Amino acid sequence: MPSAIEIKSPEFEEGLKLLKDNKFDQSIEFGQNWLKNDPENLNAYLLLSLAYLGKGQEGGMLDQVKKVHAIKPQYNAIIFATAASFYATKNHFYKALDYYEQSRKIEEIPWVVTEIAKIYQGRGQLRKAREYYEKNQDDANLGRIYLAENNCAKAIGHALKAIEKDKQNAGMYIILASCNLQTGNFELAQENYLKLKAFDPEKSFVADYYLGLVDLVNKKYDIAQKRFDDALRNTPKAKELNIAAAFISHNNGDFSKAKQYASRANTSDPNDFLGYLALADIFVSENNYLKADQTFKKAKILFPEFSLPGFKSADFFDSGVPSEPASLTLANILYREGLFAQVLTLDKKSKNPFILMTKARAEMKLGNTEKAKAYYQEVIGRHPALFTAFMELGSIHASKSENTQAISMYEKAGQIDRNNIKPLMALADLYYNSGKIDESLRKYEQIIAKSPNSAIGYNQAAWVLSEDKKKYDEALTYARKGIKAAPDDMNMQDTLGWIYYRLGKYSDALKSYKYFSETGRGTPSNLYHLGMIHEKLNKQEMAGKLFEKALDMSDDFPEVSDTEKRFKVLTQNNN
Predict the structure, then answer these.
(1) What are phi and psi of 486, to 5 degrees?
(2) 169: left (phi > 0), else alpha (psi -120 to 50), else beta?
(3) How many CA atoms lie within 13 A of 262 on its CB side?
(4) Which end of the chain is more exposed for a tag (fewer CB within 10 A), N or C?
(5) By C-alpha distance, which of 112, 158, 160, 106 is closest to 132?
């Protein structure tokens, strides 16, 4: 229950203690006796409302609302808000939002608006969260949201207003520092990171990392190295610090020390490609191309060609530009941190394709599509067998509806890496989005032929046949094969179950949802499908729970309107 609810009497405190001890029947008896002595005591009705909610009797709470309406209708704003807060603590966000809005219809209570915003923020619906925070002029949270939306101008404005109210609000200095860093105002960034250290010592290692990063950008490598080493004494496993320190030692020619830092980063997080990239780049500088090639493979998520059989790093690094390997590491450190403009300033003499493609990605982030295309075209002109350049240039063409050029790029990428299904997936999606369903199906069939043990081709083909072509029996054949290839694949189970639903085979449909039945997890659309199946099997209570869970997760998914309609019908029937 939010602290904004006033406790105006010893009786309420006594009743509240019973609620906290989960003694709901005693709470109800206590509240009813209280009303016998004081029939219009609004706090007694509030206590009863909470007790009925605790017992799972929403109708009992609504009965109190009716009684309060006859006494003081405005007080129901508090009862609805309290009910909403109760449901929010149970993660029943759909009902929470519903009751908060009912409260707002009666009276606009500031903390209610904040609680609504928090729900949307927690669900990742930042635009809606922002709309509610703006009603209360909650500058601190507005600053956080605008930072997440990469709107630094507004993030800084709200952070500064929040600091006027609380000069020691460390979170606001993070916003100011991050935005100044991203927009190239490095002096202000450092100033705010120093304030962060002063007001929140626990964030010192974060502040030291970014202070060092600014020093890197300004080529104050000795100062940066000292910052990183000082921070590493307290947090020796921090991968970001180790990777940045590895770059400096690499750049200074101390390859042995650089390898120690990079190896420590890889031990700290074996799944992070950047540590392996840093280590591979060091091996290149040592002319140890065998180890470099082996290590680059572990960074293949960054550039898939690193793992191709014919890849030889010696073919791509110019011995006449010895800075290239370290520059590739730094380019990707800066790119990860959103310092896209700074990526573009690195090693302008270098024609290393991986540095150029990192610059192309930076241009894309900055919205400079044509400049990005120029980088990719330069790479293709110099290295016509690089998979990534064709794929990413194809994506640019596709985003501009230049389908002929996109198809050409994807097809060339497929010729370079014939075992990679990504070009076929890109082509299938391109055809599907342009309304060429049969063409997309042919590509999905090619994916199946190329990768028969993967569910992705079967899943896409089955879904298109079912939902677009209405060929349910043919779709079922693909879905069954997909389940055989990947029996635990969540998406495959959903597709198979939904096809059975389309065929009217509801029991078979339910059996298909093994993952959801065992874990209770899924996307809102998955849960909607499962709810529909339970509804057809006359399992109305479970259907209602599934619809509600889908709505608790989000109010922004394709089937949301039908989900809400069905949930309300089931709720009314149950009441």
Answers:
(1) -145, 80
(2) beta
(3) 27
(4) C
(5) 112
From first CA to last CA, the distance across the chain in angstroms is 25
Which of the four pLDDT bands, split at 50, 70 and 90, describes residue 228?
Answer: very high
Pair of tokens at residue 265: 């980063």
Residues of the chain with pLDDT > 90: what percent?
93
Contact 180, 192 (CB under 8 A): yes
CB distance 420 to 304 below 8 Å: yes
* Alpha carbon 51 to its chain's center: 37
Convert the pLDDT of each residue in 472-526 to its tens digit: 999 999 999 999 999 989 999 999 999 999 999 999 999 999 877 777 788 999 9
Query: What is the C-alpha separation between 344 and 376, in angstroms, rounded?
Result: 14
Per the structure block, which two tokens stand in for 423? 């070009």
- CA dist 258 → 250, 322, 458 (Å): 5, 16, 46
DSSP string, 41-106: -HHHHHHHHHHHHHTT-HHHHHHHHHHHHHH-GGGHHHHHHHHHHHHHHTT-HHHHHHHHHHHHHH
Question: 321's torsion region: left (phi>0), alpha (psi -120 to 50) or beta?
Answer: beta
Express each pLDDT in 434-471 by its tens digit.
999 999 999 999 999 999 999 999 999 999 999 999 99
Alpha-carbon distance 558 to 567, whole Å?
16
Answer left, alpha or beta for residue 192, where phi above 0 means left and psi between -120 and 50 means alpha: alpha
Q: What is the mean pLDDT of residues 123-138?
A: 96
If pLDDT is split at 50, 70 and 90, which confidence band does 420 have?
very high
pTM: 0.88
Q: Which of 233, 212, 231 is nearest to 221 (CA)?
A: 212
CA 370 to CA 516: how far, in whole Å?
A: 45
Assigned architecture for domain 1-136: Alpha Horseshoe (1.25)
